[in-house]
Write a structure and sequence with these properties.
two-stranded antiparallel sheet, Ubiquitin Conjugating Enzyme, 3 helices, alpha+beta, single chain
Length: about 90
C-alpha cells in the first residue's frame, strides 16, 4: 500500500476500509481540506502524523465511508477483523 499525496489531498491505493477514508481512497482529514484547517505552513510531518493518528483513532464525527463507520461503531471486533484481512491481502510479499 502506498500513500499518494498532493498539496491538498492524501490518498490510499488501494482504498482502505476505514471510517475516515472515502471509497476513492482519499483521506478525510481537516488539515488536508482548504476550506477547513489547511494552512501553507503545515509540514509533511504534521500531515503524516495526522493521518497516522486518524488511522489509529478514527474520527466518528466526520465519517467518509458508511460501511466502515457503521461496523466500527456497532461491532469493533468485526471491524478489526476486516482491517486485518485487508492488511494481510495487500502486504508486500
Amino acid at each position: 500500500m502506498q500513500v499518494i499525496s498532493s498539496s491538498l489531498s492524501g490518498k490510499f491505493e488501494p482504498p482502505l476500509f476505514h471510517p475516515n477514508v472515502y471509497p476513492s481512497g482519499t483521506v478525510c482529514l481537516s488539515i488536508l481540506e482548504e476550506d477547513k484547517d489547511w494552512r501553507p505552513a503545515i509540514t509533511i510531518k504534521q500531515i503524516l502524523l495526522g493521518i497516522q493518528e486518524l488511522l489509529n483513532e478514527p474520527n466518528i464525527q466526520d465519517p467518509a465511508q458508511a460501511e466502515a463507520y457503521t461496523i466500527y461503531c456497532q461491532n469493533r471486533v468485526e471491524y478489526e477483523k476486516r482491517v486485518r484481512a485487508q492488511a494481510k491481502k495487500f502486504a508486500p510479499s
